[in-house]
Design brief:
Layout lengths: L1 E7 L7 E7 L6 E11 L1 H8 L9 E2 L4 E8 L11 E4 L9 H4 L25 E3 L6 E2 L9 E5 L3 E4 L5 H5 L4 H12 L8 E4 L3 H12 L5 E4 L3 H9 L4 E3 L2 H11 L5 E6 L9 H6 L1 E9 L14 H6 L3 E4 L7 H13 L9 E5 L4 H9 L5 E5 L6
Helix pairs in contact: 4-5
């Protein structure tokens, strides 16, 4: 079928809305009418080259929710009319990683930037001129329709607003799990969250729910610091340098047992700064993405050894998407997890460049594209 999508044709150029054509669902695939898409910083990394796709043009978007319209042969857990979230990392349930309980490292993840469908290794999306299109993480939620493998689809309750559900395709599990899984925040621990955008605010809530004593939110944007206090931060600071002395005073020199780094772009020169506010035997969790082409890191190796600190990477917050996404949304329904207030603004697909400008200039915790009949 023909529809439209937000494409990138080269680096450092704006998104362009173009006509695209998507195929029908093949074996183990699902066709979805999209209702909402989250605007995550990772899609901006496509524009800068920080996340290098295998080619252009690229169809953006890896965070979204919608309604199943059609299922392919062999799909048994989903049917037309089901409400679903698109998980940006698929979970096959069969590979060694999935069997070991680390579904966020599913072997299907190796294919996410190649553009070829998991089901048959063909390009399923094309431009009006017949060019092969590379969908972000094999999804491409910046389009009102998609056909994806069932491993990327998670069924949810029908009473959950689509704009809320969409954020659980990436940002909410990534942030919440960075605190509760990768960081393993325990009751009474002091925690710092560095960067309180969408992922950071979810990490902040995860730390609060896990029982953290002090939660230090660090962000250069004053408005975001104000919002962080509403979501449960006990103290806010504009920079790590500003925070370090106060954290030392408040914790009697112990510093933070857990430091969760959720900045929009990680730079290696900052790693030792984050480790500097990490306690002895504490853990610094790197959730924010760095440029895949960069490998330089500043780190005092002696202090890493002598103070027995841990530097932990985290993808998708260590989540098992088929379990954690429904669980997080059940917490939302019970009023235990505040997702709705994280949505600062809604945009049409045609306003995507405006939405990313707002994100980069610090005006959003999370922006959401809401699809209407005008988009279809």
């Amino acid at each position: 079928m023909k529809t439209k999508g937000a494409l990138l044709r080269e680096l450092n150029q704006p998104w362009k809305i173009e006509e695209i054509e998507i195929g029908d669902p093949k074996a183990h695939e699902v066709k979805i009418r999209m209702e909402a898409a989250g605007m995550c910083h990772s899609d901006h990394h496509l524009m800068t080259g920080g996340i290098p796709m295998a080619g252009f043009p690229v169809l953006g978007g890896h965070e979204g929710a919608g309604v199943v319209e059609e299922v392919g042969e062999g799909v048994t857990d989903l049917e037309p009319g089901d409400h679903v979230v698109l998980s940006f990392i698929p979970s096959c349930g069969k590979c060694p990683s999935c069997k070991e309980g680390v579904a966020n490292l599913c072997d299907f993840g190796a294919m996410l930037l190649q553009g070829e469908a998991v089901s048959d290794h063909t390009f399923r999306i094309h431009t009006a001129a017949g060019e092969e299109v590379y969908p972000m993480t094999l999804l491409g939620t910046f389009s009102p329709y998609m056909v994806v493998h069932e491993a990327s689809v998670v069924k949810i309750d029908k009473d959950i607003p689509f704009e809320v559900a969409a954020l659980c395709g990436c940002g909410i599990p990534t942030g919440y799990g960075s605190s509760t899984r990768s960081g393993d925040v325990r009751p009474g621990e002091d925690v710092a969250i560095v960067g309180v955008g969408g992922v950071g605010t979810a990490a902040l809530q995860g730390a609060v729910i896990a029982g953290a004593r002090n939660v230090f939110a660090i962000d250069p944007i004053e408005w975001k610091r104000e919002q962080a206090l509403k979501f449960g931060a006990t103290h806010v600071f504009a920079s790590v340098e500003e925070a370090a002395g106060e954290i030392a005073t408040i914790t009697a020199g112990g510093m933070c047992r857990k430091v969760i780094v959720t900045v929009g772009e990680v730079h290696g020169k900052d790693v030792d700064t984050w480790m500097g506010i990490t306690a002895k035997n504490g853990t610094c969790v790197l959730t924010g993405m760095g440029n895949m082409m960069e490998s330089d890191v500043t780190l005092n190796l002696a202090m890493l050894t002598l103070l027995q600190k841990n530097l932990q990477g985290s993808i998708f917050g260590g989540a098992n998407p088929k379990i954690d996404i429904p669980n997080l949304l059940s917490m939302y329904k019970l009023g235990k997890l505040n997702i709705a207030d994280m949505i600062t603004r809604e945009y049409t697909l045609d306003q995507i460049n405006e939405g990313y400008t707002d994100m980069l200039e610090g005006r959003n915790i999370r922006g959401v594209i809401r699809y209407t009949d005008a988009d279809r």
